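Data availability (excerpt). The following record was deposited with the supplementary files.
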Amino acid sequence: MLSTHNHIKYLSAALLLITVIAYSGCKDPGKAKEKHLISFKEYNGINYSEVARRQKNGLSFNEYGYQLEPQWKMKFVSDDSVSIFSPTKNTFINFPLTRGYDSIFNAARSWLKIKKISKDSIVMEILQAKGDSLDIAGSKVYMLFYADNYVKNVLHTDTSILRRPSRKDTLFVKGLVAKANSNIAKAFSARQPVQLISKSSQITVKQKITPPDISNNFDSSDDYLDPNFDITIHKAYKDFYYSFEVCVDDKGRMHYVRPLITFFGEDFKATYIRLSQGIMKSYLQYYFKIVPGSTLGFAHASTIAVHVEGRTTAK
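Predicted structure:
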């Protein structure tokens, strides 16, 4: 579907072994290293929560519907250890912390650069790993953290309120919605994906879900960027299996987009498309209540992938 979102997901890059070379003009490399290595000693033990994650333009959404969602909770334990909250285990987990020069460090399989840090807040930039090197120019994606004590006793609010999308985000999304609903070719990923609700006991549907864990940095955004549904139809007219892409408009109507398999002949392709379109127009549109996808409460056209299996046998 929208594979272009992958270049934004910098936090899922694999841990790389990178050697950062000291400044060539320094007479004493050892002293230079000691001078430029960032220290977190002054901030050890402070609980910080991420309250915003934005691009350079100030938006947390892009034109494909991808949302940079603030999720992290962390505290520095020492100069070589950081504790990060795991939502799946509901506890903090200690991770090794590797420090580099110019305020760069690595933790939890992510390369980050401190832009500003105090006992009240931190601004970090996400760095992009490219092959066996690190782009220190940055990704222009920024994470804003506030100390929990600062949120409670100075701002007198909570992180759930601070994490809400900004007015600028809302206006941007409204613009995307207007375009998508006037032309489904401009459909974008829905933050709350399409829902397919079966109206028949003979038809079952299950959306594929990605469990958030350390391997994906607790990022399950693929579930809304590329929604996939497994559908089984019992007592079908014959046994079959079709995979295809569908655009669901803001009214819940289905529009066939394309098949999701490789073809080795145009005749077979034409037949596959004709038959899978028939499955969509008959079984799917008649036996499902279809709730369109939405973002920030606005229903809009979005694309889903369906994998439909027909079985002649009863359930």
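Summary of structural features: The chain is about 20% helix and 35% strand.
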